[in-house]
Design brief:
The chain folds into 3 domains: 136 residues, Winged helix-like DNA-binding domain superfamily/Winged helix DNA-binding domain (Arc Repressor Mutant, subunit A, Orthogonal Bundle); 66 residues, no CATH class; 35 residues, no CATH class. A hairpin with a 2-residue loop joins strand 4 and strand 5. It is elongated. By secondary structure, the protein is mainly α. Helix 1 packs antiparallel against helix 2, helix 2 crosses helix 4 and helix 6 packs parallel to helix 8. The strands form 2 sheets. It has a 3-stranded antiparallel sheet, with helices on one face. It has a two-stranded antiparallel sheet with strand order 4-5. InterPro entries: WH-like_DNA-bd_sf, WH_DNA-bd_sf.
Length: 272
């Protein structure tokens, strides 16, 4: 947890409410020694009790201002994972140009703590920089590692597991996982899993023994199939029988050239 980064973020009074809230949440998940985190937008949204759209707009503004950098990451199957976010705690707003603050144009000379490549701190960031330098000396520097497990995960959750939990017939899981990896080249994990949930919840889906294996469904792009509709019993309803009798009567009259005396209560052709 980035205690020092979070302390610095709380002091950024020049930020609008949305950007400050998002920045504080990000800094709570960084390492003070590196100012980096793999926190996802879903996690940030949960931390601040806001929507992902709220978080996305806040991150985009912070990135334009130069306060953070984002590096997109994807797994082996092309599924997007959480971004690597790098916070720049040396950022400081000096003046307003249009809607966004600018960085200072002067730099310190040789300094024991700061280099020429870093902007000169203001009063509010001088203490933050001192704390950062002290924290770096106290902590072992290392680069944070991505979440353990398959790269096709977000916050440790494998999208395949979500699909597997939704599919109503769980057989041949290794084959299903292989088919899943191939299917991700043709559709997104969200699309596939949503279709699997719709299939599971369809009241007209077949009984379990007739449900395809998950690998079979994935290999044939089953997410594009229409859902099953109501099934009949195979026996005619009373309405169907009455309609058939009426049709047979019309055919009988037409074959005789018109009406003829009825000599039996069940003439041939009218049996139902």
């Amino acid at each position: 947890m980035g205690f020092k980064d979070a302390e610095w973020a709380y002091a950024q009074d020049h930020l609008a409410m949305r950007e400050k809230v998002v920045l504080v949440a990000v800094c709570h998940r960084t390492l003070d020694a590196t100012h980096k985190t793999f926190v996802s937008q879903q996690t940030i949204a949960a931390m601040v009790s806001a929507s992902q759209d709220f978080v996305q707009k806040g991150l985009s503004t912070l990135e334009r201002m130069g306060i953070i950098e984002r590096h997109r990451r994807t797994g082996a199957g092309g599924y997007r994972t959480s971004d690597l976010i790098v916070v720049d705690p040396t950022y400081t707003a000096v003046s307003q140009v249009g809607r966004e603050p600018t960085r200072p144009s002067t730099y310190l000379a040789d300094s024991g703590d700061l280099t020429r490549s870093r902007p000169a701190p203001t009063q509010s960031t001088a203490v933050a920089e001192e704390n950062i330098q002290r924290n770096i000396q106290m902590n072992t520097q290392y680069t944070p590692k991505p979440p353990a497990g398959d790269l096709n995960t977000i916050d440790g959750i494998d999208p395949f597991d979500e699909f597997w939990a939704a599919w109503p017939r769980k057989v041949a899981k290794p084959n299903a996982r292989k088919a899943w990896a191939k299917a991700l080249k043709r559709a997104t994990a969200e699309t596939i899993t949503a279709a699997a949930i719709d299939y599971r919840d369809n009241p007209h889906r077949p009984s379990t023994e007739f449900i395809p294996h998950p690998a079979t469904w994935l290999n044939r792009d089953g997410w594009d199939d229409a859902l099953d509709g109501p099934r009949g019993t195979g026996r005619p309803t009373p309405t169907d029988r009455a309609t058939a009798i009426a049709r047979a009567g019309q055919q009988l009259i037409a074959s005789r050239g018109g009406l003829a005396p009825v000599t039996t209560l069940r003439p041939k052709g009218l049996e139902g």
